[in-house]
Give the backbone structure.
Amino acid sequence: MTLVATDEAAPVLAELLPRFKEQAGIKVDLTLKTAGEAAALLRQGKADAVMTDDPETEEALVKGTDASKRLDVMYAELIVVGPASDPARIAGMASVVHAFAAIARTQSPFVSRGDKSGLHRTERSIWDEAGIAKPEGAGKWYVEAGGDMAKALGAAAKANAYVLSDRAAWLQFTSRGQLVVMVSDDPRLQQTISITLANPAKHKGANADAAAAFAEWLVSRETQLAIGRFALGGEQPYAPQFGLSGK
């Protein structure tokens, strides 16, 4: 079966997909795209399922009959990282909205993914809440990388800038320079990752049985526990949707 997923889900999928093949005998061919690109591929009948972090687009796929079902699978934790010098004085803030407001107020360098991904949309919604409707027009302090998380983190490290990242990408990023974690644990920073299945009634070539089997496997107790236990650098960047204990 063909699965198109966002890069936030890639690290845990690299561990899960071989397990699924071993247990179910089904091979999953994975392609990484932004949420919008993934949705477009499903509409074109080029994906059996998509795993994305954009609930609005996922619901639109179901309402438009391109998709038959959507299931929440897990949460990816987002964090704000920035230079250790912390010019905006946001380290340890409980509210990411207040942190963004401080970054804008001090015009401290900030790098955005700028790629219309689900994480980019989350970032834009935080700016909206902070009262900065169009940060790209607010000054030279705001720069769009126009790429994935690795590209944005690299640009932030080079410029000693703040950036909104998913924790999994941060844990895999090695060229950190002076960047450190500034803000985390705000409920606003939980990014829901869901699986949306192509509707075989509309897309006749869809491998619906395999996609349904994979979706049910993802939300099974065993797999949910595995998601909660998954670690990078000794940290757990994901939380299972059903809040099962990994102990």
In short: The chain has two domains: 2-75+192-240, 76-188. The CA atoms of residues 12 and 230 lie 7 Å apart. Residues 10-24 form the longest helix (15 residues). The chain is about 40% helix and 25% strand.
